[in-house]
Amino acid sequence: MGGYLRKNNRKGGHVWQAVVNTGIDPEGKRLRNYKTFPVGTTRKEAERILQKMILEIENQEHVTDSNVTVSEFLREWVDAYCRGKSPTTFQSYQDIIEGYLVREFGRLKLKDLQTLSIQK
């Protein structure tokens, strides 16, 4: 997985844009994540954030859909992760997710979930 920076000229100056290649879809089209930095961001700052983006994507920590809630994510996760597990395991995971996690954090956007809010 690779990424690069490109410079775009704007009226107020130039902006940097980070582009991270995340793979190829079934139709052969490249999948990319973009982040545009405000005017005044230095190349060095943009490179540092680009490297962080690449690491997050490689470690599967990057959230691409900014409107996903915690409850939507957890329900998708339990359905995908528990395939092939025993029905008892699936049910216990579902009980924990619905009984504790969704009740407490379900309305939050996944991108807004912070470690401190979980620890409280």
Helix content: 40-55%
Distance between the termini: 36 Å
Estimate what percentage of residues fall within beta strands.
15-25%
Q: Which stretches of 5+ consecutive residues score pLDDT under 50?
A: none
SSE run: EEEHHHH
Mass-distribution shape: elongated
Give a short overview:
Helices cover 43% and strands 22% of the residues.
Describe the structure.
It contains 4 helices and 3 strands; from the N terminus they run βββαααα. It has helices at 43-58, 70-81, 87-105, 115-119; strands spanning 3-10, 13-24, 30-36. A 3-stranded antiparallel β-sheet has the order 1-2-3, with helices on one face. The radius of gyration is 19 Å and the shape is elongated.
Topology:
Layout: E1 3-10, E2 13-24, E3 30-36, H1 43-58, H2 70-81, H3 87-105, H4 115-119
Antiparallel strand pairs: 1-2, 2-3
Structural descriptors:
alpha+beta; elongated; 22% strand; 3-stranded antiparallel β-sheet; 3 strands; 120 residues
